[in-house]
Amino acid sequence: MPELAFVMAPRQNLFFVEIVEALRHELTQLGVRSRVCEDGFPAADAELVHVVIPPHEYVALGGELPSRQFLDRTIFVCAEQPGTSHFDENIELAPLAGAVFDFSRWSIRQFARHGISVEHFQLGYSSLWDHLDPGRERDEDRDECEDEWHEAGDDRAEDEQKDDQRGREAELELTVLEVTLRQLVEVVVACRAAGDVDREVGVSV
């Protein structure tokens, strides 16, 4: 199984740092190895696929993009709104990558207008971000309010809590994020296979 290297520049937006942390957490649950590289692209490795999130910020903060050999094995994950300068920068950079994802379907349509094929990266539930602690002591004010609701014969709050818990259990079984991550892994494997084919052609020539 290939390993993913998240290539990031120092001082990147905390939002993207947290996204990478969640992705790595979920990838670990899927049995996929990953690492974070903040000092540029790592040395060439047949098992390694690079992920840059987002490309425009990485470059703006001084990150250098490698040669085509590396970029063919690189995935860009974009997250900017169309109509902004950052999105325009991603438009320019996207064709360099082996594969491109974006969080927004709207952005994907705008990429398509520029002839760029982009896959949708749907964010979803991650246990890393779930801070629910069923064993934690409840807030007294909240308990008093719920007591009043129960005295009035209104059990909707309790029912909503049960629904939320059932929803969490269902999400734990198969999350949208997990599905997208599996798709990401498939792209990683495809990038690796393409690289293997290129090397075989080079040898035959």
Write structural notes for this entry.
The protein has 8 helices and 6 strands. The protein is an alpha/beta fold and 205 residues long. Strand 4 (74-78), helix 4 and strand 5 (99-102) form a beta-alpha-beta unit.
Key traits:
about 200 residues, alpha/beta, 6-stranded parallel beta sheet, 8 helices, about 10% strand, disordered C terminus
DSSP summary, beta strand count: 6
Strand content: 5-15%
* Helical fraction: 40-55%
Rounded to an integer in angstroms, the radius of gyration calculated over CA atoms is: 22 Å
| Topology pattern, helix = H, strand = E | EHEEHHEHEHEHHH
The side-by-side strand order for the widest beta sheet comes to 2-1-3-4-5-6
What does the average pLDDT come to? 81
Class by helix and strand content? alpha/beta
The general outline is globular
* Biggest sheet character: 6 strands, parallel
Weakly predicted, low-confidence segments? 201-205
What is this entry, summarized?
With 205 residues, the chain is α/β, with parallel strands linked by helices. The chain has eight helices and six strands, in the order E-H-E-E-H-H-E-H-E-H-E-H-H-H.
Secondary structure: elements and pairs:
Elements lengths: L2 E5 L6 H16 L4 E4 L10 E5 L2 H6 L7 H4 L2 E5 L6 H9 L5 E4 L2 H9 L5 E2 L19 H12 L4 H18 L2 H29 L1
Parallel strand pairs: 1-2, 1-3, 3-4, 4-5, 5-6
